[in-house]
Description:
153 residues, alpha+beta, five-stranded antiparallel sheet, elongated
Amino acid sequence: xxxxxxxxxxxxxxxxxxxxxxxxxxxxxxxxxxxxxxxxxxxxxxxxxxxxxxxxxxxxxxxxxxxxxxxxxxxxxxxxxxxxxxxxxxxxxxxxxxxxxxxxxxxxxxxxxxxxxxxxxxxxxxxxxxxxxxxxxxxxxxxxxxxxxxxxx
Length: 153
């Protein structure tokens, strides 16, 4: 997570196994697992367009991404032996590349959550474009869909 995310927080999309959220740069998955789980019990296969995560041989997450990710830069960790965090760097890191769902046809954000994700990513874009300002507590209204308006350079 970036400094902007640390200050402004995340917009999570809840799922049966935990949650996922996104920034301009990456999509993150937080999957709850039983306390005491070891890394040997987890198998995580990440490819540019798909993912498969199994726990004790049972599939927990499987499907195709909406757009490609950098599979070779992706990482997963087991935290406190009770949560798996998977970080997937986006191939197209722009505010306009806001995923409506984690996988094609699965784990879709409701309208309110997606709206909040778009707002946050647009503010993050403004932060990248104006590093001297702090947009972490800003609010916005108007045109922010698709990454917000194109501003003159």
